[in-house]
Amino acid sequence: MVDIYTDGACSGNPGPGGWAWAIEDGDSASGGENPSTNQRMELFAVLDAVRNNDGAVHIYSDSTYVVKCFNDKWYSGWIRRGWKNSSGKPVANRDIWEPLIDIYLDRKDEIEFTWVKGHSGNPMNEVVDQMAVAAVKRD
């Protein structure tokens, strides 16, 4: 199983955004979107990571929004309710969630999610944070 760290950043919310993912001593990628939100960038980092890494992956994210969707199966209710959240409102960022959840459902036995506390000294979380912030400024 490959460990992949992901992060998103935004300058303003909404504002210019950046995302990044990295494998220790391995591949990495980053990019951005303007305008964007922090949550969109957190999600896009994961989507790009799973699209570009076949096989078993362990995603580490400091976004409870991302991790809880999969570990607490929020996506099941969204799909059952026609992409509405528990309040009956449309699921935000569906354009990213939908392909990400499709990939997850196809590879459910190969993708794990773990939450890591951001800005707490985790070296790889710091790396992807710096990459995402740089992408905000670059893209």
Which range does the strand content fall in? 25-35%
Shape: globular
- Helix run count: 5
Average pLDDT, rounded to a whole number, is 96
Q: Helicity, in percent?
A: 40-55%
Tell me what the CATH architecture is.
Answer: 2-Layer Sandwich
Under CATH, the topology can be stated as Nucleotidyltransferase, domain 5
- The tally of domains stands at 1
Give the end-to-end Cα distance, rounded to a whole number of Å.
31 Å
Our Rg estimate from Cα atoms comes to 14 Å
Instruction: Give me the CATH superfamily.
Output: Ribonuclease H-like superfamily/Ribonuclease H
Characterize the main sheet.
5 strands, mixed
CATH class value: Alpha Beta
Strand order of the largest sheet: 3-2-1-4-5
Question: Which consecutive residue ranges, at least 5 long each, have pLDDT under 50?
Answer: none
SSE pattern, N- to C-terminal: EEEHEHHHEH
How many beta-strand segments? 5
Structural class assignment? alpha/beta
